[in-house]
Design a protein that fits this description.
Largest sheet: 4 strands, mixed
Helix content: 25-40%
Structural class: alpha/beta
Main location: membrane
Subcellular location: Membrane
Strand content: 5-15%
Number of helices: 11
Protein name: Core-2/I-branching beta-1,6-N-acetylglucosaminyltransferase family protein
Radius of gyration: 31 Å
Keywords: Glycoprotein, Glycosyltransferase, Membrane, Transferase, Transmembrane, Transmembrane helix
GO molecular function: glycosyltransferase activity
Length: about 375
């Protein structure tokens, strides 16, 4: 009997030890899991903090909507300091959702490719006056040059980081892509016009804006030239990616929709071929965009330029027009020269919105015609 009682006590003691061990073990597991979770959360949160902090620092100069989505314009920030690769990468980003989650007024980006001064700037200032929310200005000049304008000017702080450009080289096409990329950082820009320091508008802002914003197509001249000035500039080294029958030529002065501007900036494959094989005497600015659009986006292109030029003098450059050429009849002749061109699904006599090549001496007589002939008035 005594032995049985002792055995029972020993059994109970062992059970208590086992239960105590299990309680301690379970408690250790719970504490360990909790601590591990806290540590993981700490390191994950620190990693996220580091990642987003660095991303925000890296892209702080670029126009990504703030949490309140109040401002998606890069209107005041062009000195971002990015390399071309960084700039093109960011500019080629496209939202997956078509509808903007903020009020967006579509704008036209006027992109000026110039060596230095803009002698016809007063004419453009008068053209832009009263329409600030409908346009953006971008200027690509030679490095070191600075436009001297007042803070009220449409050109104030609108120069983009630039590089040296030489006529007839791939640097011209590179400058065009640089202008497009900077303009794409502003989500409100919907249409993109390339202009030079010798270009002028021949209609008022309202007419130009509605013409471009309502167009279903971009305006890039792209045609097959069988001569040595067209197909003769093609390099067989571009095979098999670019074939001779796909090669196109056209005016450098284009107008693009946002969709096509993004695709041009995003392209690396075909631009690399042009950079490598379209050397001087090939003139990439007359062939790269023209060939690229013909190969992939021909159905989105009106296949004509909206910039008038006078080639009647012959030679590699158009005629330069000075003060003696500027009359009311001359401007009217450009605007209504008997040409009829397609616009969306209709025909129109308004085929040109801009003209070049105008000398500085043309400024004063042009300013005298802005009200009577060009109709520069506010909305």
């Amino acid at each position: 009997m005594k032995s049985t009682t002792v055995d029972r006590h020993i059994g109970l003691l062992n059970l208590a030890k086992t239960l105590s061990f299990l309680v301690v073990f379970v408690a250790g597991v719970v504490v360990g899991m909790t601590a591990s979770s806290q540590i993981n959360r700490y390191f994950v949160s620190q990693a996220k903090l580091y990642f987003y902090s660095n991303m925000n620092n890296h892209f702080s100069a670029m126009q990504i909507p703030n949490p309140t989505l109040r401002n998606c314009s890069s209107e005041a920030n062009l000195t971002h300091g990015f390399s071309d690769n960084e700039l093109f990468w960011r500019a080629s980003m496209v939202p997956r959702r078509a509808k903007y989650p903020f009020k967006r007024v579509p704008k036209v980006a006027f992109m000026f490719l110039t060596r230095g001064p803009l002698p016809l700037m007063p004419l453009w200032e008068r053209f832009f006056e009263g329409h600030r929310k409908y346009f953006s200005v971008y200027v690509h000049a030679l490095p070191g040059f600075e436009l001297n304008v007042s803070m009220h000017s449409a050109f104030y702080k609108r120069q983009i980081p630039s590089k040296n450009v030489e006529w007839g080289t791939v640097a011209l096409a590179e400058a065009e892509r640089r202008l497009l990329a900077n303009a794409l950082l502003d989500f409100s820009n919907e249409r993109f016009v390339l202009l030079s320091e010798s270009c002028i508008p021949i209609y008022n802002f309202r007419t130009v804006y509605k013409y471009l914003i309502n167009s279903d197509y971009s305006f890039v001249e792209s045609y097959d030239d069988p001569s040595r000035y067209g197909r003769g500039r093609y390099s067989r080294n571009m095979l098999p990616d670019i074939k001779l029958y796909q090669w196109r030529k056209g005016s450098q002065w284009f107008e693009l929709s946002r969709e096509l501007a993004v695709n041009i900036v995003a392209d690396t494959k075909y631009y690399t071929l042009f950079k490598k094989y379209c050397k001087p005497s090939c003139y990439p600015d007359e062939h790269y965009i023209q060939t690229f659009l013909n190969m992939f986006y021909g159905s989105l292109n009106a296949n004509r330029s909206v910039t008038w030029v006078d080639w009647s003098m012959g030679g590699p450059h158009p005629a330069t027009l000075g003060a003696a050429n500027i009359t009311e009849g001359f401007i009217q002749a450009i605007r209504n020269n008997g040409t009829v061109c397609p616009y969306n699904s209709e025909k129109t006599s308004v085929c040109y919105l801009f003209a070049r090549k105008f000398a500085p001496s043309a400024l004063e007589p042009l300013l005298n015609l802005t009200s009577k002939v060009m109709g520069f008035k506010n909305f």
